[in-house]
Amino acid sequence: MILADVGVSNATLAEGLFVFMLAAFLGFVLISKVPATLHTPLMSGTNAIHGIVLVGALTVAAVANDAAADVIAVIAVFLGTMNVVGGFVVTDRMLEMFKKRPAPGGDKDAQKPR
Amino acid sequence: MTVSPLAIIGYMFAALAFITGIRQLNSPATARNGNRIAAAGMLLGLIVTEATLGAHNYAFIIPTMLVAAVVGTYVSRAVQMTAMPQMVAMFNGMGAGAAMLIGLGDFRDLTAGGQSLAPTESITILLSCLIGSLSFTGSAVAFAKLQELMTGRPVVYPAQKPLNGGLFLAIVALGIAIVAVGHGIGLVLVFIALALVLGVTFVLPVGGADMPVIISLLNSFTGTAAAMTGFVLGNNVLIVAGALVGASGAILTQLMSKAMNRSLANVLFSAFGQVQAGAGAAGTEGGTVRTATSEDVAALLAFAQQVVIAPGYGLAVARGQHDVKELADELEKRGVTVKYAIHPVAGRMPGHMNVLLAEANVPYPALREMDDINPEFSRTDVVLVIGANDVVNPAARNQPGSPIYGMPILNVDEAKTVVVLKRSMATGFAGIDNPLFYEPNTLMLFGDARDSLQKLTAEIKHEYPA
Question: Where are the domains of chain A?
């Protein structure tokens, strides 16, 4: 089996670039608004999101057809899974602490005195 | 082969979940929910992928994922809140390593029958290998520095920058050669090895104080590497998630370097080494230091109108956040107003100190950002500086020669009295002497932060009943 046959390809290079630019712009816009307080959880949360490379690792695993490819794939899947699971759990632990606050009205209110 | 429309819709919802998740991280009220939405999106993306790929190799993939999931959950549950920065570095490095291996695996697969790759294919593969490798070993060094497996000080050696520059050029040249030829797995392995070395040498000269900037930058790198694997595999969900993270890391890096008064260019071309190396040469003031006992400080605190607490990483290391809260509670019972001055880079990452204080149930509104609290210091009776150093160093304001000159700081020296809780006269992460300690209105209370805080609380309870 080769990559073109596994069926997860859904974009040509040009389409990919198009999507990449839009997503990067969206990332800038979304993240510029986050208050400094949440920067560490944000870094950790986005860290978990790039664990999406696991999708790539699974794809490589699907096309692996010799021992070396299997080894590469298993290590990649292991690392990717650690990234996803560890990333989301650590972020959740951090944010759990913010939840104990007496519900702040939003990021602006949360920064201001009573 | 055509992609099933159901898979495309699944990936689309996964991408939407990532966007919504990041959006909800905007506010403390919705942040936790946002993280869960992103996690659900991830699960959906993985299910769609496995369903599309079919039951080909579950025998060794599923157990691998299970083991990794158990280990990942255990490690992230067991770790102390103070160790969060190195946790992020570690998980970041793992994602980066995966991106590197995906590039390698794809290159092997696509050239297995002796074919040559089109430049568009090989460029994206090499980029995912390069950025993934850099971020992999870079994160490993960042982890080692923060975990104190190696020195947190900048590691410098002669001709460091020319060597790094030369290494980078060699990698680029080799990359161009691989693209031109279109095959040659041996060359790709050399390419990856060089990039792994560059990841190490690029982070080595960076000191502990600058580690947050580097972790943020590496987070951005890994996101970009993930997007590159998306190009390689032609998979939109990888491209969207990777681009979102790449952009977020870039923004964070910029915010952090701004807080440290460094330009992003300065960060990117790792001129940190130079700045850091000059740090030791900063002039030491030959002034005298006034030390105080916990009895003295307890009296000052008990009779103050307003007390501002300026916490730093030293507080976190001493695990003193609960003791700070206890002291603050006692003071508030006696009618003292207590506020917390949070420098943007207090702790080891932006927002790190907020997380630690939140853990101790410090009320959110008492935490004040730097710009909010700075005008208040002149009306403050006592400032307690607990384990903070560089972020309260007035040299940043008035010593143009200082390496941290121009960095925005907490102007604690404007308060009537400054009490510095510190283990010893040692310098902070940046390795710079702090003239604050020699000011006439500064008192030093030496000792372990947690120990000192407990003594203060006991003294106040005992001598100054509410």
Answer: 8-99
Contact residues on chain B for A13, CB-CB shorter than 8 A:
120, 124, 231, 234
DSSP 8-state assignment for residue B291: B
Chosen CATH of B294-463 out of 2.60.40.10, 3.10.20.30, 3.40.1440.10, 3.40.50.1220? 3.40.50.1220
Do the Cβ atoms of B340 and B415 come closer than 8 Å? no
Show the tokens assigned to B66: 């299970």
Q: Which two tokens stand for residue B362?
A: 């410090």
Distance from CA of B356 to the nearest CA of A (A): 9
- What lies within 8 Å, CB to CB, of B408 at 6+ separation is B259, B261, B344, B370, B396
Chain mean pLDDT for chain A: 79
Tokens coding B74:
């255990």
pTM above 0.95, yes or no: no
Interface test with A, best of B2, B30, B364, B372 (most A CBs within 10 A): B364
Is the distance from CB of B345 to CB of B259 less than 8 angstroms? Answer: yes
Please report residues of B whose CB lies closer than 8 A to that of A4: 1
Active site positions of B, annotated? 390
DSSP string, B36-97: HHHHHHHHHHHHHHHHHH-SSSHHHHHHHHHHHHHHHHHHHHHS-GGGHHHHHHHHHHHHHH
Q: How many CB atoms sit inside 10 A of residue B123's CB?
A: 19
CA gap B101, B129 in Å, rounded: 7
A48-74: per-residue pLDDT in tens?
999 999 999 999 998 888 899 999 999
B442 touches chain A (CB under 8 A): no
Q: Do B76 and A95 touch (CB under 8 A)?
A: no
CB B236 within 8 Å of CB A17: no
Task: Report how far residue B122's alpha carbon sits from residue B118's, in angstroms, rounded to the nearest whole number.
Answer: 6
The CA distance from B235 to the nearest CA of chain A, in Å, is 5
Domain residues of chain B, as ranges? 1-78, 83-278, 294-463
Tell me the shortest Cα–Cα distance from B19 to chain A, in angstroms: 8
**What b/e string do you get for B271-297 counting C-beta neighbours within 10 Å, with b at 16 or more?**
ebbbbbbebeebeeeeeeeeebebeeb
Flag whether the ipTM exceeds 0.95.
no
Residue that wins the pLDDT comparison between A22 and B57: A22
